[in-house]
Amino acid sequence: MRNYKGSLAACLAAAAMMAFSGCGGSQQAEKAPLVKTQQAGSASQADIGSYAGTVRGRYETNMSFQVGGQIIARNVQVGSPVRAGDVLMTIDPRDVVQKANQGDAQVASARAQLDLAQRNLSRYSELYQENAVPAAVLDQYQASYDAAFAAYQNALAQAAQGHNAMGYTNLTAGANGVVSSITAEEGQVVAAGQTVLTLVQTNELEVEIQVPENRVADIQTGMPVTVDFWALTGRTDGVIREIAPMADSAARTYRVRVSLPNPPAGMQLGMTANVRMVQPDEPDSGAAGGAILPLSAIYQDGDTPQVWLVGEDGTVRLKDVEIGSFGDNEVVVYGLAPSDLVVTAGVHKLHEGEAVRTEASAS
Fold it and tell me: What pTM was estimated for this model as a whole?
């Protein structure tokens, strides 16, 4: 009986040890660190920044009357589409008509003076031919005729200007577009040259962004960009067309215009877009294709930068890489295969040959 009890106790103890050993092994397996990874892929372009922008017209015209007066008609509203030749506003033409009439009267007066001077010159020319008057008298009448002729030409020019002004009482659109703002209302008296509305031509739209002064050296005209519209799906290619030569005095940013050779359907004025700046990489000699990785993926314990790669067996190993250009929290590295699985977080807590768990294996 004692032998049976002793054997039973031994079996129970052995079973408990096996169970503890199994639990310990399971806990040991679950202690493999979970790491965040990214497939290296390849990159022919480096990200150097993203900026919020607004759709604007390439040609925005601040329109004004060429003559002053009171506005008696406004035919458009903000957002109204217009066509070339449409009358947008009209000012009271009465004063302009009176000036035109005044010019015509001055022409008639100058013409009468010219006719008188011409007749006097003809008479005294005949008297001079008959030696009845000296040459000095003839010269005086010749000068009077020349002055009358010049006054007549001046009156004609002023009259023509007055008649031209009659056509300036209607503010007409010079091109197809959309009225983006109105700064004068019916009944208001405006001066010549005072802006009354802004017309945006819709035949060519582009995106305007503001680039900080510490990043403007990274971009140049002709550089390719990608544009994402928050209200539209898909991505559009663009090109930097213009960089302002001076920074804004208040914001200290540079205005940059991005042209869109193939604008997406549905793009409208005022839409918000995100412009991503990219520039071609220039790999070092002997380097393979570049890969864009987070800065947190770089492990450097000496002079050579490295990254941790996850093998097919689930263990990590270090790989030497070459550093290319830097972007916003990103870096271009060379020396990786597109299929390499790179650890992108917690790289300073890993050890060579250590087993790890990835997002794919943990799911």
Answer: 0.55
